[in-house]
Amino acid sequence: MTRTISTQAISKLLVANRGEIAVRIIRAAKALGIPTVAACSEADVDSMAARLADEVQVLGPARADQSYLNVQALLGALQASGANAVHPGYGFLSENAEFAAAVEATGAIFVGPSPDTIRRMGDKAEARRTAQAAGVPVVPGSPGELFELDMALQAAEAVGFPLLIKASAGGGGRGIRLAENASQLAEEFPRAQREAQTAFGNGALYLERFIGKARHIEVQVLGDGKHAVHLFERECSLQRRRQKIFEEAPSPVLNNLQRETLCASAVRLSEALGYRGAGTLEYLYDEASGEFFFIEMNTRIQVEHPVSELVTGIDLVQAQLRIAGGEPLGLRQSDIRLNGAALQMRINAEDPARDFFPSPGVVQELIWPQEAGVRVDSHLYPGYRVPPYYDSLLAKLIVHGRDRGEALARARIALEHCTLSGMASTLGLHRELLAEPWLHHADFHTGTLETWLAARRMGGAA
Fold first, then answer.
1. Those residues with Cβ within 8 angstroms of residue 141's Cβ, 6 or more apart along the chain or in another chain
2. Angle, to 10 degrees, between the axis of helix 256-273 and the axis of helix 115-122?
3. CB hemisphere CA count around 297 (13 angstroms)
4. Structure pTM?
5. 215-458 is classed in which CATH architecture?
6. How far apart are CA 19 and CA 43, in angstroms?
């Protein structure tokens, strides 16, 4: 049923992204009766997002810097389409404060927090200071941005080794290097700086103490600028090269008191910011000591948001659109209940047998599972040519169960009922992963997956 939108709300939405998240946003907007515009590159004119949207605006050539990262092209598409709002999805310009400000300068709505909030939390050093001021514990690290190696060496004396070198303006695992001593810091600092400059257009770095065998746990929040709530936490410790592969909600290792303490700290920081929209606060959890440390906030929707949706029943993208359209949050914390467990497996166009080498191609046979408790977020269709220019994510297979055991059982069945031919993918890898006892026992940390993958390679697994 189409919802009647108010005069304050979004009248037409430009989706400034591609792939599965563009499809996800378009479907959420349609459920609210909002017309959509797909802003896409020339390589994506035949994409599912372009097919589903009410209108298409071509931004430019395939290269991201000439299309999805081209602010002027996006503003031109906004004006040409007559849209009054922009949803940036994740990646690309989603956490770019200047883009958000440029959208708002046209009189249109940026679906996300204010440019000032994006700027404050995008600067990782400023984010740490903001968290500390709100009484949220942070990992010991450098007090501000670092631009020169001499500054980094001096800061490292106070932080202590081993430490992580991280991009101040970034996320998604880019620009992060491990240094176990001063000589490694001298070697890795310029490399991290070059990677940060390339990925984010900003070479500023900061240092953070490395916590071995930590878990990566994050809290989903929603705010309307005045009030905020949490949608509980997600466990995101299974990572390869700091890119998440398998996520779940809730974390299988937290007790109720730990969960309450962690989530309350996320709400406290969100309300201190006057946060608007959907956001995620990321923490390291030292299971040995039971301590949590805030590391960063992502001021956008996350790839793994579906697991939070399935355990709470709240559509986060629709909530983003309602809040951006001027509606109050309309949720109290007591309204949000944790229901069961959810798991998400990222299906990428990568060949695990060739060290995850990208594997674009043409989708031939495609079958997704139809069982109860299974959801697939994807932009694929038979005959679709997966372009080689962008992120390799093809689909997200998400399952929900009454508890973690049922969710794991459903995940195994769902994976067996998936068929995707025409390119190599990580489907088979997830089937192997679901057979591992340590996964079922939730006995893992952020280094576990890479150790498992290394052992798998040594054993000659395909």
1. 128, 159, 163, 206, 207, 208, 209
2. 130
3. 32
4. 0.89
5. 2-Layer Sandwich (3.30)
6. 11
372 — phi, psi (to 5°)?
-60, 145
- For 15, phi then psi, to 5°, come to -95, 110
Structure-block tokens of residue 132: 């500390």
Question: E strands within 88-185?
Answer: 109-110, 163-167, 177-179
**What is the H or E stretch that residue 160 is in?**
none
Percent of the chain with pLDDT over 90: 85
* Cβ-contact 49, 31 below 8 angstroms: no
Rounded Cα–Cα distance for residues 42 and 49 (Å): 13
Rounded CA separation 58/241 (Å): 33
Amino acid, single-letter form, for residue 301 = I
Contact 458, 378 (CB under 8 A): no
pLDDT at position 198: 83
CA distance 232 to 260: 9
β-pairing, 109-110 vs 85-87, is parallel
Q: Please, what's the largest Cα pairwise distance for the chain? A: 62
pLDDT at 169: 76
For residue 231, give the nearest of 338, 343, 306, 134 by alpha carbon.
338
| Length of the chain, in residues | 462
- Do the domains 215-458 and 140-209 match in fold? no
* Amino acid identity at 359: S
Q: Which two tokens stand for residue 136?
A: 């949220």
Q: Tell me the CATH architecture of domain 13-111.
A: 3-Layer(aba) Sandwich (3.40)
Residue 290, exposed/middle/buried by CB under 10 A (0-12, 13-18, 19+)? exposed
Q: Domain map of the chain by residue range? A: 13-111, 140-209, 215-458
pLDDT at 124: 77
The predicted pLDDT at position 227 comes to 97
What backbone torsions phi and psi does residue 275 show, to the nearest 5 degrees? -70, 140
The CATH number fitting domain 140-209, selected from 3.30.1490.20, 3.40.50.300, 1.10.1660.10, 3.40.50.970 = 3.30.1490.20
Residue 380 is predicted with a pLDDT of 98
Instruction: Name the residues annotated as catalytic.
Output: 300
Weakly modelled stretches of the chain, pLDDT under 50: 1-7, 461-462
Q: Residue 117: what residue type?
A: T
Alpha carbons 294 and 215: distance in angstroms, whole number: 12
For residue 103, which amino acid is it? V
